[in-house]
Amino acid sequence: MAALRVFSRNIPYLRQQFSALLGNTSPSVKFICVVVVIGYILSFSDDVVKVLSVTPGYLLPPSFQFWSTFTFWFLEIHFWEVIVDIVSVGLCGKLIEPLWGRLEMMRFFVLINIGVAFLTTFYYLVIFACTGQTSYLFDIHVHGLAGYIAAITVAVKQILPDHLLVKTPLGKLTNRSVSLLLLIIAIAMWGLGALEGTYPCMWASGTIISWVYLRFWQRHSNGSYGDSAENFSFDNFFPTVLQPVIRGILGPPHRLLVRLGLCAPSQRRVHLALSPGGVTISMPGVEPQDMERRRQIALKALSERLSKTSEQTRQKNLSSKVNMDAVRKSAGSHVIPQFPAEPAPRPPPPPPEATLIDIAEPSPRQS
Predict the structure, then answer these.
(1) Which stretches does UniProt call biased (Pro residues) (predicted)?
(2) Which of 128, 220, 258, 287 could form a cystine bridge with 136, CB 3.0-4.6 A?
(3) Comparing C-alpha atoms, which of 219, 227, 206, 221 is closest to residue 109?
(4) Are 282 and 188 contained in the same domain?
């Protein structure tokens, strides 16, 4: 009851924060948040959960319930998951959507969720093949936006890879490590029974699918595809000690996908070109769209800082004006005695003028 009273007292503050978060977002972001809230209300019915969520055994033949890949994402059964979804989608609308555009943002949303549904189903199909337990096919219900939230962390890593989040005694935590760190936390919470087993599976699926799409397939305004930056390679998700091992494991599959034409080869050469304006240098991992993206992010951060500074200055001036008005009103409400001004001191009189007296010697008497 005490926790409920504390929560009820904080409802106005939470409403204010959510309004500020979703105030300037697009209608698509607001629509996703509203649908997630509705899905949480519907999740109190077990029959609705079975119908709207993805069941691996029913997504496969002969059932082919493909329509569940369009409904599972807005179904959450825990209130804290609803809060995490709304905050994540709101931040995505603030940071990523202005850079990508609404169409690309919705394409990314649909692609990630459909891919998460099928890849998570594949995970449980492999587990069923190894164990032979049918419960992994028909008692598992995949639902929620865990995969999409993982995809958002990958996109933020692409945009702001070196952004510092927290300083810890063990080192600095940046956007490079968020995806893997949260996956480890999800697995640990699943081991403790605090999360369903589908959550880490969906998180891993969203991380892989979003990285593949952003790395190789995302189309940019200049006609290029993907992001070949060195700091966005897959081994960069892992600590520095493990990166050589990850490169050795992923090297053969990547070369196979390159031969099949599904992935672009890694560029290792520097290209020099003569132009009327001088020499143009093209280096691997330094693409024009990456430079433009980082430039837009820097301009956005600068504009936000300037607007914040101007707002603080305006509030300070307004506060000073209010204080002056209060002083004037206070002075007008009290009678202040008026004392006659002291007369100015008179200037000292000028010194008397000296009178010149001609003193002549008396003339001698005549004898």
Answers:
(1) 340-353
(2) 128
(3) 206
(4) no
pLDDT in tens, 347-364: 666 655 544 444 444 444
- pLDDT for residue 365 is more than 50: no
The tally of CA atoms less than 13 A away on the side-chain side of residue 319 is 6
Mean pLDDT value of segment 277-301: 54
How far apart CA 231 and CA 329 sit, in angstroms, is: 62
Tokens of 361: 């010697």
Run of H or E including 199: helix 198-212
Between 3-12, 92-101, 182-191, the lowest mean confidence (pLDDT) is in 3-12
Q: Diameter of the chain by CA atoms?
A: 174
- Examine the domain organization and report whether 226 and 279 are in the same domain: no
Nearest to 145 by CA among 300, 46, 265, 29: 29
Q: What is the pLDDT of residues 113-155, one digit of tens each?
A: 999 999 999 999 999 999 989 999 999 999 999 999 999 999 9
Range of the domain at 195: 21-232
DSSP state at residue 343: P
> What predicted TM-score, i.e. pTM, was given to this entire model?
0.70
Look at residue 164 and tell me whether its pLDDT is greater than 70. Answer: yes
Number of domains in the chain: 2
Please check whether residue 151 is in contact with residue 220, taking contact to mean a CB–CB distance below 8 angstroms. Answer: no
Q: What three-state secondary structure class fits 330?
A: helix
CA–CA separation, 273 vs 85, rounded Å?
Answer: 47
CA angle at 119 for the pair 94 and 293, rounded to the nearest 5°: 30
255 in a domain, yes or no? no
Q: Does residue 14 fall inside a structural domain?
A: no
